[in-house]
Amino acid sequence: MWMRRARTTALALAVAGVTAIGGQAATGHPSPAHGGLELHEIGDFEHPSYIAHAPGYRRLLFVVEQPGRISVLRSGHRLHRPFVDLEGRVNVSHPERGLLSVAFPPDYKHSQRFYVYYTNQHGDNEVDELKRARKHPARSVASSRRRVLLIPHPGEANHNGGQLQFGPDGRLYIATGDGGGEGDSGDNARHLNVLLGKLLRIDPRKRGRRAYTVPASNPFVGRQGARPEIYAYGFRNPWRFSFDRRDGTLAIGDVGQARQEEIDYTTIRHARGANFGWPEYEGDSTYDAARPDPNPHPPSPTFPILTYTHSEGCAIIGGYVVRGPTLKALDGRYLYADLCDGEIRSLRPTLNGARGDRGTGLELRSPTSFGVGHRGRLYVASRAGPVYQLRETP
Predict the structure, then answer these.
(1) What is the pTM of this model?
(2) What pLDDT does 101 receive?
(3) Can you give the pLDDT at residue 296?
(4) What is the H or E stretch that residue 254 is in?
(5) Chain Cα centroid distance, residue 335
(6) Cα separation of 353 and 387, whole Å?
(7) What is d(CA 345, CA 39) in angstroms, rounded to the nearest whole number?
(8) Where would I find the H helices in the chain?
(9) For residue 203, how many other CB atoms are within 10 A of its CB?
């Protein structure tokens, strides 16, 4: 039903000395063109953590910088003025804290609303809404900031998750880590009365006095003792997830504890109310099976389609299924990487497992995130600063 990655790589983990996303960052440089693919640098940023584009603005590309800014490129040229500056609000006391992602709704061109995810000065995770300037699409209005959702994150500084994505249903999905500590010491991932270690689903628009609303179709709506925002649970640190632009299938890269990294792949319908296993399972292996499950009649775990061990990496960087004309050789394949290993790999995902996992011939230092631009262009960020576009060579 799932597969392990069929390769071994010796990693010089001690070289790095930089921790992020639950692992150590490796050194290295972007690889040259190989097999018809290349990494083309589009700019250098301060700890870039995510890349996104806004519907309706094909010339603009947004790069999230972990210290609290979002920079914007227009037709490939970086603008001097940042799109967003939240440095005074963002906590960067730990490499896994900071401004972690941005999401633009499908109606962004008309609504002017967008959303950011960051760790605030108290160490809690926060989702805020902002608006862009009406006559300046490359600028936001600082005074428009409105808190949508606060996710308490007491104790540890790591495992914040950090991904925002609008799904094909128009709802905002939010991935949160388990709150840190070895082995989910707070047992947050399985408890349905906390928002940590979960995939959340909300309508982030303000309704009267309500900062957001919960879709009635969420699985735990009306269940006593459960937070209705929860859509799926049992995650350790789902740092990056994505939806297939063609069919809406959900892919999640969940960072492992000490043995395995995993890629989960399922439909939105099957993810509804699903348990993805942590901490009973790490990847496809038992981790803490003796700990009693707090939920009555819990569903069987949804197992990953691919795992690999820490002899090959330290922290999965989940990516995207390639769609569109810009990378024809990879069409329909899921791209991912590892923070320590740095190699960009691809596989063909199916609901019954991964097929044809292999390297692309491209690698870079300490990848932190993939991103999608106009017409499905694929980008990848390095914690060292550069952001690259994946391109086919002539």
Answers:
(1) 0.93
(2) 98
(3) 86
(4) strand 250-254
(5) 13
(6) 31
(7) 13
(8) 108-111, 268-271
(9) 15
DSSP assignments along 66-125, one per residue: TTTEEEEEETTEE-SS-SEE-TTTB--SSTT-SEEEEE--TTHHHH-EEEEEEEBTTS-E
Backbone dihedral angles phi then psi of residue 193, each to the nearest 5 degrees? -100, 5
pLDDT score for 21: 58
Read off the DSSP letter of residue 167: -
Q: Which parts of the chain register pLDDT below 50?
A: 1, 6-20, 23-28, 31-34
Tell me the Ramachandran region of residue 243: left when phi exceeds 0, alpha when psi lies from -120 to 50, beta otherwise.
beta
Please calculate the CA angle 363-366-368 and round it to the nearest 5 degrees. 105
Note the pLDDT of residue 290. Answer: 85
Model pLDDT, residue 292: 81
**CB hemisphere CA count around 337 (13 angstroms):** 26
Query: Would you state the pLDDT for residue 113?
Result: 98
Nearest alpha-carbon partner for 74 in 82, 65, 66 = 82
Distance CA 235, CA 237 (A): 6
Residues 99 and 64 sit within 8 Å (Cβ to Cβ):
yes
Pairing of strands 281-282, 285-286: antiparallel
Q: How far apart are CA 72 and CA 75, in angstroms?
A: 10
Residue 394 pLDDT = 78
Structural domains of the chain, ranges and CATH numbers in brackets: 3-392 (2.120.10.30)
Residue 239 and residue 383: Cα distance in Å, rounded?
14
| CA pair distance 329, 14, nearest whole angstrom | 35
Cα distance between the two ends of the chain: 38
Length of the chain: 394
Cβ 252 vs Cβ 235: under 8 Å: yes
- At residue 375, the 3 state secondary structure works out as helix
Contact 43, 64 (CB under 8 A): no
Using the structure block, give the residue that is written with the tokens 């270690």.
Answer: 197
Which residue type sits at 363? E
Q: 279: cis peptide before it, omega within 30°?
A: yes
| Nearest residue to 391 via CA among 326, 329, 336 | 326
